[in-house]
Amino acid sequence: MLSQVVNDVLLYLADLGYFGIALGLMIEIIPSEIVLSYGGFMISQGMIGWPLAIVAAVIGGLFSQLFLYWFARYGGRPLILKYGKYLLITEHHLDLAERWFIKYGQGVIFGARFIPVVRHAISIPAGLAKMDQTKFSVYTILAIIPWSILFLYLGDTLGTNWRSIKEVAAPYTNGVLIAAVVMIIVYVALKKRQRTT
Question: Phi first, then psi: what are they for 115, rounded to 5°?
């Protein structure tokens, strides 16, 4: 069951419409799955429409990741270690994301978006490595779109029962996680093959 604070935040975001979805994803006070499923509920009630809801989700999701990217690119690792806790990024998260980025390369930005713990932290090693911002943004958007559509759809389908999103979404998110891991394995295998030819 959602806490009263989360419920109040969602009601406030609902009053802001599309901007509320973007803002909720941008500042990440509550998990993106809940914000998006509530956005789907808003669609089911006719408060907002599908196309602009997806646009708002992409804008909010992209800027939340660009903030982490810029924070790392221009602040460096010491700043991340000092202030990362306020962004819910621990040194363990950072170490794990850095290992993924170094081991799998820039293409991992897409697949890692679907994997818990690594999902948000992966933007930091991309910033530290000064990855091309355009390429970073493209990979991020390509991952945000299907994720947003999935949870907006589930929220729309559930309607007033959207609060049960965690249980309903579990089979989908497990499938997405497996698919993401398979994609990363294939990507790594192709990269290794390119290096040996």
Answer: -110, 120
Q: Which residue has the tokens 């930091």?
A: 124
72 and 133 in contact (C-beta within 8 Å)?
Answer: no
Encode pLDDT of 12-62 as tens digits.
Answer: 888 899 999 999 999 877 888 899 999 999 999 999 999 999 999 999 999
Q: Where are the beta strands (DSSP E) in 9-144?
A: none
CA dihedral angle for residue 70, residue 71, residue 73, residue 79, rounded to 10 degrees: 170
| Residue 123 contacts residue 130 (beta carbons within 8 Å) | no
Alpha helices in 84-122 (DSSP H): 91-104, 108-112, 118-121
Tell me the three state secondary structure of residue 163: helix
Cα separations (Å) of 92 from 19, 85, 88, 89, 99?
Answer: 33, 11, 11, 8, 11
- pLDDT of 49 reads 96
Whether 151 contacts 30, CB under 8 Å: no
pLDDT tens figures, 137-181: 999 999 999 999 999 999 999 998 988 888 887 777 777 667 766
